[in-house]
Give the backbone structure.
Amino acid sequence: MKALVRYGKEFGGYRMIDVPEPKCGPEDIIVKIKAAAICGADMKHFRVDNGSSEFNSIRGHEFAGDIVEIGKDVQAWQVGQRVVSDNSGHVCGVCPSCESGDFLTCREKVNLGLDNNRWGGGFSKYCLIPGEILRIHKHAIWEIPENVEYEEAAVMDPLSNAYKAVAQQSHLLPGQDCVVFGTGPLGLFSVQMARIMGAVNIVMVGLDEDTKVRFDVARQLGATACINASQEDVVARCWEICGGRDNIGLVIECSGANIALKQAIDMLRSNGEVVRVGMGFKPLGFSINDITAWNISLIGHMAYDSTSWRNALKLLSAGKIKVQPMITHRMGLSEWEKGFEAMANKEAIKVIFHYDFD
Ligand SMILES: [Zn+2]
Ligand SMILES: [Zn+2]
């Protein structure tokens, strides 16, 4: 089968190559991929040539498909079930995170299709769900509700992530306001979560390039105002829209930009919260004394847990969360470069691949 793989440990190194089909062990499950989405985490490696010829892994951690084979010892799953993976491939099972069922913050977690791992992910024809993860973390895969499409299920990763950021990490109350930085899937799902939870003003902050497609989609999904940070004074505009500093108690920061974190801290009321979803790789370059001076909480946020998945799947199935406006491109995996290109120039929000080599 063909697979989009990465070479080397450094950033970069995508290639489409032939790989052997996975072999199902006694506790393993083989999933035939029906839909796999490009994530921001995949984009970091695009157009970067790291010069390595050392095989890393098959990529693609946001995928859904059909169970086509189960190992002889698998009891909980059957061939023919439609499933989506939460992309965990390995966790230790004994650390404080694992003990509390919060497997995605296990320091030893290995993601299918994201980290350097021996199993591989969804940018291919088949993916093996390792029996060892299913033994420890039975919710490593979920059955897809009948009325949910494969392509919708394939983006459960950012949806569950935003669910946890807004509903489980923040203390948002109905009637309060929420500012969301970053117009990618995490930002757009955060907007929807803020809407569901009863936020009044939901302000989306983006840049010049977001005026092409993403601001319109944000408005469609519940943003009550969009601010172009390339042109406008973000803090002043947020105060104006929300009626002053006192109404801004929550910022969901999905952009990862240092300036966004600074603006978030600057605009918040005393005792406010920033949930930092996005990641940046440069030192901050500014003081965070204001979080001490005004008792502001800076909440680091990673991934989701099974509660996020259970509830996010129910919201999706009930039609309370919309995914379709965010799926802007669908194409064969053979056209992978075109898909990554559309993401890079921000024409796309979500690109869904299907396997089209045979
Ligand atoms: Zn992802
Ligand atoms: Zn662990």
